[in-house]
Design brief:
50s Ribosomal Protein L5, Chain: A, 4 helices, alpha+beta, 5-stranded antiparallel sheet
Length: about 180
Amino acid sequence: MLFDLKEHYRSAVVKELSSLFGYSNHMQVPRLTKVVINRGIGAATSNSKLVEVTFDQMWALTGQKPLLIRSKKSISNFKLREGQIIGCKVTLRRDRMWHFVSKLVNTALPKIRDFRGVSNSSFDGRGNYTLGIKGDDIFVETDTDSGQLLGFDVTFVTSAKSDNEAFKLLSSLGMPFRRSVDKKG
């Protein structure tokens, strides 16, 4: 059984962030609104089986049917035609979101070889955080018999008004950020 992250947020994180930032109402506390998992599959122009593999992996990973992204226009230099599939994404909300974040933080990220934490500098200035995963082999659900590792991006969309609030929210939820090293002394 995975750690119940939703209950941890309600019981501990809300109190911690309220005292830290001085919120008078628990509805002011930043929360995780959605998680978007995205994979660009531009290589599908030469390998059509890649679309099927990506679709199946995303579905197995999230438990939700992915959305295939098609190109809007043709670009001859990239051998890309209008309407061709170039990406795959899944937007997770509510219980599926909490389950995926718990699985990512507690089981998948610790499997990365020589893992020292995720980057502190991937915030967008509005309280959202994007994490790039280089290999999908860290998840049990992904089948890597295709011979190549496929990466993807995970975007955490929060209701935080600043990057500092989002950083505190995600670190309270267990996101293993890198320790920043002082270069002064």
